[in-house]
C-alpha cells in the first residue's frame, strides 16, 4: 500500500508507490479518476532545485555590511572635516610672545605684509619669505611694502626653492638651523595653517612654532558654506591635510613611503638670499 504524506492545506495527499520508476525527487500519483483522458497529477518539487529565499539571504547580508561601512566612512569623514574647521581661526590674533625668527609661506593674500608688520613690531629678529617665485626679485616685493624698506634691506631673506608646503618646511628648517633659531612664528592663511604646522613640526621637532593665522577678507565678510569656491578650497585643503597627517605618522613609525627628494638634499647647505642682495 505505501505511506502517505500531507503536502498542503487543501488535503491533497502524495503516495509513495513501491517500485516506482519516476525520477528521483518526484513522485506522481493519479488521484480519484480522470478528467477527460488526462489524469490529475500531484508532484513534489525536486530537492535539487535551488531555494531562492536561501540564496538571497547572503546577498542581503553583504549589502547591509557594505551600507554600514559606507555610513561609518561618511561619519568619519564628516567628523574629521568638522575637527579641521575647528582649528581655523576666524580673526587674526597677535602672537602671545616673541620668537627668534618669523617665516611666511607665500600663496595667499596679505601674508607677506602681515609678516612684515610682525617683524616691524619686534616679534622676531629676522624674516624668511619662503616660496618666492624664481622670477620675483626684491624690487617686486619692495613695491608692495613701501612702509618697510629698511627692514626689507636688512632683515629679510628670500627662499625661491620651495614649491609646496613640504619643501617650505625643508627650506625653513635649513634657514632656522643655520641662524641658530630655536623658535619661529609661522605666518600663513588660516585654512593652510593646520597642514603647515604638521609639515613644519615634522621637519624640525626641536624648534618651537608659534602660529599666526592670516584671515582673508572673504572669510570675514561671509560664511564659508555660502560660497562654492570657499567650500571647494576647504575640502581640497582638508584632503591635503589628512594626507600630510597620514604620511607624517607613517614616517614617524619608520615607514617613509614618500621620502623627500629635492636637489637641496644632495648639495651643500646654502643660506637663502637676502632681499638686499636680490
Layout of SSEs?
Elements: E1 4-6, E2 13-15, E3 29-35, E4 38-42, H1 52-86, E5 101-105, H2 111-120, E6 126-130, H3 138-144, H4 149-154, E7 156-159, H5 165-179, E8 183-189, H6 193-203, E9 208-214, H7 217-221, H8 228-252, E10 273-274
Low-confidence sequence ranges: 1-17, 22-35, 262-269
Task: Work out the helix count.
Answer: 8
What's the CATH C level of the largest domain? Answer: Alpha Beta
The helix content, as a percent range, equals 40-55%
Give, in order, the helices and strands: EEEEHEHEHHEHEHEHHE
Would you mind describing this structure in some detail?
The chain is of the alpha/beta class and 278 residues long. It has 2 domains: 4-42, no CATH class; 101-274, Rossmann fold (3-Layer(aba) Sandwich). The protein is built from 8 helices and 10 strands. The chain has helices at residues 52-86, 111-120, 138-144, 149-154, 165-179, 193-203, 217-221, 228-252; strands spanning 4-6, 13-15, 29-35, 38-42, 101-105, 126-130, 156-159, 183-189, 208-214, 273-274. It has a 6-stranded mixed sheet with strand order 9-8-5-6-7-10, sandwiched between helices. The chain has a two-stranded antiparallel sheet with strand order 1-2. A two-stranded antiparallel ribbon has the order 3-4. Helix 5 (165-179) packs across helix 6 and helix 6 (193-203) runs parallel beside helix 8 (228-252). The protein is elongated and about 85 Å long. The termini are far apart. The model is unreliable at 1-17, 22-35 and 262-269 (pLDDT under 50).
Amino acid at each position: 500500500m505505501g505511506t502517505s504524506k500531507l503536502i498542503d492545506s487543501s488535503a491533497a495527499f502524495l503516495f509513495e508507490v513501491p517500485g516506482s520508476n519516476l525520477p528521483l525527487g518526484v513522485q506522481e500519483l493519479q488521484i480519484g479518476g480522470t478528467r477527460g483522458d488526462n489524469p490529475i497529477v500531484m508532484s513534489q518539487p525536486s530537492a535539487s532545485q535551488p531555494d531562492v529565499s536561501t540564496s538571497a539571504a547572503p546577498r542581503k547580508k553583504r549589502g547591509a555590511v557594505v551600507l554600514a561601512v559606507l555610513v561609518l566612512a561618511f561619519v568619519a569623514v564628516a567628523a574629521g572635516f568638522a575637527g579641521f574647521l575647528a582649528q581655523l581661526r576666524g580673526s587674526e590674533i597677535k602672537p602671545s610672545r616673541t620668537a627668534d625668527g618669523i617665516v611666511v609661506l607665500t600663496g595667499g593674500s596679505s601674508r607677506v605684509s602681515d609678516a612684515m608688520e610682525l617683524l616691524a613690531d619686534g616679534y622676531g629678529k629676522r624674516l624668511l619669505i619662503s616660496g618666492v617665485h624664481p622670477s620675483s626679485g626684491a624690487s617686486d616685493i619692495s613695491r608692495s611694502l613701501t612702509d618697510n624698506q629698511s627692514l626689507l634691506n636688512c632683515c629679510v631673506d628670500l627662499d625661491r626653492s620651495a614649491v609646496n608646503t613640504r619643501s617650505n618646511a625643508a627650506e625653513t628648517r635649513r634657514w632656522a638651523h643655520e641662524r641658530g633659531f630655536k623658535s619661529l612664528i609661522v605666518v600663513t592663511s588660516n585654512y593652510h595653517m593646520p597642514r603647515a604646522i604638521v609639515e613644519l613640526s615634522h621637519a624640525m621637532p626641536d624648534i618651537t612654532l608659534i602660529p599666526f593665522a592670516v584671515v582673508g577678507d572673504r572669510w570675514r565678510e561671509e560664511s564659508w558654506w555660502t560660497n562654492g569656491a570657499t567650500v571647494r578650497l576647504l575640502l581640497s585643503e582638508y584632503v591635503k591635510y589628512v594626507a600630510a597627517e597620514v604620511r607624517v605618522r607613517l614616517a614617524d613609525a619608520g615607514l617613509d613611503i614618500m621620502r623627500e627628494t629635492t636637489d637641496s638634499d644632495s648639495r651643500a647647505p646654502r643660506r637663502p638670499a637676502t632681499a638686499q642682495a636680490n
